[in-house]
Structure formats: structure tokens, C-alpha cells
Design goal:
2 domains; single chain; mainly alpha; 13 helices; two-stranded antiparallel sheet; MetI-like fold
């Protein structure tokens, strides 16, 4: 009997690995393999045409003195520091408003989520029309209250805020859904007890919602930071990294070096430097977040 059970377990294990094989093969071929290849490529000089030359740490040394890379890094940090808090704040407020059982609430939730599943390129083109200096909707609305709208995408002072505004609007629904799930997981009897004790809406939010939503907020912060450091589509479609490099992000600069200047080694070095930055920030957030997260 024991031998029969053992043979059955071995057969089930073989079947399980057989079903997992496509996923495992895909991981090695499309994720791990390219990642290792890019790490090796970061120590080389290669333009796709001439033979690969090993240059050691030359790419990383060049990066330290590259003014364009420093500007791209600063722009990315600026984008992250502005877009992440705005996105989280507006998403949470929207989730609180939509966390009601009223007529038509499902339609509103779906409507706010539509931009998330829409193509970033399509959304960026629509926002380019909105930002048009002469006939754009935004400047027309500002003119109604006596404000002359700026040259949104051609003024270095306004280009990055314009990209940030568009990104916050597009990603609003994703974080909203996550916050909604967290809000619906908070027991309603806690709010009932607080109301009986005389707590107002602000006290209920600050002493019940915020602590019990901390694990959801922690997840949203980490994922938002990781995503914002990889921003590319918006800058590529709306501004091409301009004007005067005002919206040049690290990933866009990586793309330029790799696929426009054919400096594959340098592009790979930038990619791994970005990985180290994102990993370090995620570790710091993970360690710091443990003090404030309540389960």
C-alpha cells in the first residue's frame, strides 16, 4: 500500500512539473536570461554592429560624470515625489466617496477605472489636445476665470507638472480599487461603536480608517514608487523628453542610448543602476513601513 501511495505521489509530482514547465521555461528564456545578459552587457561597449568589447566599470564611471543622466535622474525623482503623494491622496479620497451603497455606484467605479485599462499612448494624445495653448480645453477654462494658460508642453517650467497631472489622472482608478478593497475589509461595527461614543467623521477617519488601512496604503506606496521610477510612455509621446530635457526620465534616457545611439552597454548600465535605486528604496520603505503598518 505504501509503495502504491509513493508511486502515485511521484506520478502527481511529474504531472505538476509538466504543467509548470511552460511557465518555468518562459521565466528562464524571457526574464532570467535577458536579465543576466543585460548585466554582462553593462560591462561592455557594443553598438550592435561591431564586436562586443569588455570595458569593465567604464560605463558606470561615465554615468557618474554624465550631466544628461543626472538631469534625467533628477527629473525622475521630481516626478516620483510629486505624482506618488498626489495619486495616493486623490485615490483615497475617491475611494472614500465611492465606498457607499447608493444607486449607480457601480457605474461610477467602472468609469473611474476605464483610464487605467486604456492605452497610455491614446490617453497621452488626448491630453496633448487638452494642453493645446490656443484651442485646448484647459486653457479655455482658465481664460473663463481671467487666467492666461501657459504653454503646457513647450515651457520647461510647466512640462513636467503637465506630465504629472496626466499620470495622476490615468492611474487614479487603479489605486482607488485597491483602497476600496481595503475599506470594505474594515469591520463596520468599529464605526458604529465610534459614533455611539460621539466620534465625528474626522476622528473616525484618523483613528479607525487610517490605521486599519495602513497595510493597503503601504502596498500602494511601494507599487506606486516602483512604477513612477519606470515612467516612459508619457514623456515619449507628449514631449520626447523636452523641452530642454525638462521631462527626460531615466528610462527615456536609457531608451535613447540603447535604441537611438546604439550604446547598448551604457544603456544596460543605466538599467542596472535604476534597478539598484528602486531596490534600495523598496527595502527602505519595507523597513520603515513595518513601524506604521497595523494588521
Amino acid at each position: 500500500m505504501a509503495r502504491r501511495v509513493s508511486a502515485l505521489q511521484r506520478a502527481q509530482t511529474r504531472r505538476a512539473y509538466l504543467f509548470l514547465l511552460p511557465n518555468i521555461a518562459g521565466f528562464f528564456v524571457f526574464i532570467l536570461g535577458p536579465a543576466v545578459a543585460s548585466l554582462l552587457l553593462a560591462f561592455t561597449n557594443w553598438d550592435l554592429l561591431t564586436p562586443i568589447q569588455f570595458v569593465g566599470l567604464a560605463n558606470f564611471k561615465e554615468m557618474a560624470g554624465d550631466r544628461d543622466f543626472r538631469q534625467a535622474l533628477w527629473n525622475t525623482v521630481y516626478y516620483t515625489a510629486a505624482s506618488v503623494p498626489l495619486s495616493i491622496a486623490f485615490s483615497l479620497m475617491l475611494a472614500l466617496v465611492l465606498n457607499k451603497v447608493v444607486r449607480g455606484i457601480s457605474f461610477l467605479r467602472a468609469a473611474y477605472f476605464i483610464p487605467v485599462i486604456s492605452s497610455t499612448v491614446a490617453v497621452a494624445i488626448v491630453w496633448m489636445w487638452i494642453y493645446e495653448p490656443e484651442g485646448g480645453i484647459l486653457n479655455r477654462l482658465l481664460s473663463l476665470i481671467g487666467i492666461e494658460g501657459p504653454q503646457w508642453l513647450t515651457d520647461p517650467s510647466w512640462a513636467m507638472p503637465a506630465v504629472i497631472l496626466m499620470s495622476v489622472w490615468k492611474n487614479l482608478g487603479y489605486n482607488m480599487v485597491i483602497f476600496l478593497a481595503g475599506l470594505q475589509g474594515i469591520p463596520s461595527h468599529l464605526y458604529e461603536a465610534a459614533r455611539i461614543d460621539g466620534a465625528n467623521q474626522w476622528s473616525q477617519f484618523w483613528y479607525i480608517t487610517v490605521p486599519l488601512l495602513s497595510n493597503t496604503t503601504f502596498f500602494v506606496v511601494i507599487m506606486s514608487v516602483i512604477s513612477s521610477f519606470q515612467v516612459f510612455d508619457q514623456a515619449y509621446v507628449m514631449t520626447k523628453g523636452g523641452p530642454a530635457g525638462a521631462t527626460m526620465t531615466v528610462v527615456y534616457y536609457l531608451y535613447q542610448n540603447g535604441f537611438q545611439f546604439f550604446r547598448m552597454g551604457y544603456a544596460a548600465a543605466i538599467a542596472w543602476f535604476l534597478f539598484v535605486i528602486v531596490f534600495a528604496i523598496s527595502v527602505i520603505e519595507w523597513r520603515a513601513g513595518g513601524r506604521y503598518v497595523h494588521y
